[in-house]
Design a protein that fits this description.
CATH topology of the largest domain in chain A: Glutaredoxin
Number of strands of chain A: 8
CATH architecture of the largest domain in chain B: 2-Layer Sandwich
Structural class of chain B: alpha+beta
Number of domains of chain A: 2
Mean pLDDT of chain A: 94
Number of strands of chain B: 20
CATH class of the largest domain in chain A: Alpha Beta
Order of helices and strands of chain A: HEEEEHEHEHEEH
CATH architecture of the largest domain in chain A: 3-Layer(aba) Sandwich
Number of helices of chain B: 9
CATH superfamily of the largest domain in chain A: Glutaredoxin
Shape of chain B: rod-shaped
Oligomer: heterodimer
Structural class of chain A: alpha/beta
CATH class of the largest domain in chain B: Alpha Beta
Strand order of the largest sheet of chain A: 1-8-7-4-5-6
Largest sheet of chain A: 6 strands, mixed
Largest sheet of chain B: 8 strands, antiparallel
Low-confidence stretches of chain B: none
Distance between the termini of chain B: 69 Å
Strand order of the largest sheet of chain B: 1-2-8-7-6-5-4-3
CATH superfamily of the largest domain in chain B: START domain
Helix content of chain A: 25-40%
Low-confidence stretches of chain A: none
Radius of gyration of chain B: 36 Å
Chain lengths: ~220, ~425
């Protein structure tokens, strides 16, 4: 626990104490939400979609191979977490915000892999996805293309115009080999209610610790 | 080019760096489908290979061109994956004598060093003939791996202080491109037209073009593997009502080894040069106006530098509309003052605006605002905000230290002594 600094004013101490209570309440709320999430029934079947991926070494561009959704469970006893990347379809250039999230996942995926299977799925062709992945240095992620499948459409991460939506999906594999959808969330949680997956990136949370907060800062594919 | 490292009357040795691992290069020599694509010297369009890839096994390669089909036969002597391969080689070009080809592969940084030794030729002429052919084959083999190699992509987003039309022109107009890069540029701006930039270092072809919005090009750098092209897409979108442009660059198919150069190259040779160019272009218009109009009394320069719908915002006098307003101000000043000299102190460029602070010295030699000539040296300051549009001044907001100037020509001499001293 962090105690007060010697020269803190009384006003600061009061304000900080009040903030601490709010932070604890937020932590409790997060845990209540997680408990509710865990109680979702695991029952919704999904098709065993066919995707495309490349060799494990990102610096090799081929051969490309087919992989099924069920094949993304490298460990069948662990759930599969999929980042739904907005790239492909009507999204000609990768979404900068999604790219920020994925940059983060690339750094922590070896931790995640202890408990889950993890993949990034985009509608763009596998060659382009890997080419872009090489620029980002995503050597630790499993990059998968859903081009040609109805995965994005069925999961509602692609609309009729081909527009892509960002988000995260969780699947589990039943003992009979079928795949069940457990949970999905998007940046747009409900109409007009956004920032649904902000908690997946440390960037926003870190900026929120500063006097200015996150402000109107936004991610870009690169910074001049 | 493959490098010739030894040549005698019956033998030659070539060296070539192949951008692939030894295993991959070795596999290419053992695969008829692969051989078909790269064992193609000179005008050979494809080669048909039938091989029995084991020591003692036979090989038959028919090199096909428009002129003739040339058959080569032989037998594998050494097969030691992934480092050594030797086979005999017989054709009409060896006078049907048995010659020997040895391929040795060494691991090197950036790929595999291939050493090709072809020996036991009947004559020195046959040596000369074959070294050219194998050298081309080695080059094609290197290209074959280059084409199949993993490529990289660059995506940049830059905000430029210019309208999309100006950015578009800078990219596609030969003279403007050459101005901002400081290097020769030839651009045929039609779809299908070729371009040669940076004096030949960058070449390619425009595939699709949509004025002020999008340019798609087949694009390569001089030092890339022969025949390898990337695809460059520039997307232009206006920001801030057209005062700025968001340029999104997508370049796919960059050879992996060239990535760092290209990624940095756009910043050094394009974005920063374009930014300086757009700034300098706007400053030049405003500076020319100051020099010609104010320091040379060339009132007609207004017709060239101001747009026909130019608007001057100057507190005080009633002015005629359009560029005539600026001329009227000029006439009033030059009737009253001589030896006018104006200098620019600060220049700030933002979007389509140029802001300048001017200071002026002059001699009060004629009637001004009802005050007859005093013969005094006077000083005044001016602040201008100019709005530029397509290389001309479309609007100006001007403030002049008018009251201070009036004081200098109306107050008793001692009180007006400040005249001529900049503040």
């Amino acid at each position: 626990m962090k105690g007060p600094l010697a020269n803190e004013s009384e006003a600061y101490r009061r304000a900080r104490a009040e903030l601490l209570e709010a932070e604890i309440a937020l932590r409790d709320q997060c845990e209540r939400v997680a408990a509710l999430r865990r109680m979702l029934p695991v029952e919704t079947d999904v098709d065993d979609y066919v995707f495309e991926e490349g060799p494990r070494e990102l610096d090799k561009d081929g051969p490309f191979t087919k992989v099924r959704l069920s094949g993304l469970f490298a460990d069948v006893n662990k759930p599969l977490v999929v980042y739904q990347y907005m790239y492909g379809g009507a999204q000609k250039r990768p979404c900068p915000m999604c790219t920020l999230w994925i940059d983060g996942f690339n750094g922590v995926v070896h931790h995640l892999r202890q408990r889950v299977n993890f993949a990034v799925i985009a509608q763009v062709a596998i060659g382009e996805l890997r080419e872009w992945g090489r620029q980002r240095g995503w050597h630790d992620l499993r990059l998968v293309s859903s081009a040609g499948s109805n995965f994005k459409r069925d999961l509602q991460y692609q609309d009729a115009e081909g527009s892509q939506h960002p988000g995260i999906s969780v699947f589990v594999r039943s003992p009979d080999g079928s795949v069940k959808h457990f949970y999905s969330n998007s940046a747009t949680m409900k109409e007009q209610i956004n920032r649904g997956i902000d908690l997946l990136s440390p960037v926003w949370n870190t900026l929120d610790l500063t006097p200015e907060g996150r402000g109107d800062w936004n991610a870009k594919l690169n910074y001049e | 080019m493959a490098e010739l490292i030894e040549e005698t009357n019956d033998k030659f040795v070539l060296r070539k760096l192949i951008p692939a691992s030894r295993q991959e290069v070795f596999a290419a020599w053992s695969d008829p489908e692969s051989i078909r694509q790269w064992m193609c010297p000179g005008e050979t369009t494809s080669s048909e290979a039938q091989i029995d890839f084991r020591v003692g096994g036979s090989l038959r390669v028919v090199m096909k061109s428009a002129k003739e089909d040339c058959e080569h036969t032989g037998e594998y002597q050494v097969i030691e994956p992934p480092s050594k391969l030797a086979f005999t080689w017989i054709s009409k070009n060896t006078d049907f004598k048995t010659t020997l080809v040895t391929i040795e592969l060494f691991e090197r940084k950036g790929g595999t060093e291939l050493i090709l030794t072809h020996e036991r030729f009947p004559t020195a002429d046959r040596v000369r003939q074959h070294k050219g052919g194998w050298s081309q084959i080695a080059d094609r083999l290197a290209e074959y791996f280059q084409k199949g190699a993993a490529t990289r992509v660059v995506m940049h987003e830059v905000t430029l202080n210019a309208a999309p039309s100006e950015v578009f022109e800078a990219l596609m107009d030969s003279a403007k491109h050459s101005q901002f890069t400081g290097a020769p540029a030839q651009i045929d701006r039609r779809a299908g037209g070729a371009f040669v930039l940076y004096g030949g270092q960058l070449t390619g072809k425009t595939l699709e073009i949509k004025a002020n919005e999008q340019i798609v090009q087949q694009w390569r750098a001089e030092n890339w593997p022969k025949g390898h092209y990337s695809r460059v897409t520039y997307d232009l979108a206006q920001l801030d009502g057209g005062r700025q442009t968001q340029l999104s660059l997508t370049q796919t198919g960059i050879p992996a080894g060239a990535f760092d150069d290209i990624n940095q190259g756009w910043r050094t040779y394009y974005w920063s040069k374009m930014a300086s160019y757009f700034r300098a272009e706007k400053v030049a218009v405003v500076r020319r106006f100051m020099e010609e109009f104010k320091n040379r009394e060339n009132l007609d320069i207004v017709d060239e530098l101001m747009t026909p719908d130019f608007v001057l915002h100057l507190p005080g006098p009633q002015l005629p509309p359009g560029p005539q307003s600026q001329k009227a101000v000029g006439r009033a000043i030059f009737n009253a003052f001589s030896e006018v000299h104006v200098t620019a102190n600060d220049t700030i460029v933002e979007g389509d605006r140029v802001v300048e602070r001017h200071s002026a010295h002059a001699l009060h030699s004629g009637e001004f605002q009802g005050v007859p000539a005093t013969g005094r040296k006077v000083f005044w300051t001016e602040n201008h905000i100019y709005r530029l549009k397509e290389g001309r001044i479309a609007e100006a907001w001007s403030e002049v230290s008018f009251h201070d100037l009036m004081a200098q020509i109306t107050l008793p001499t001692q009180l007006a002594a400040r005249g001529g001293k900049p503040s």
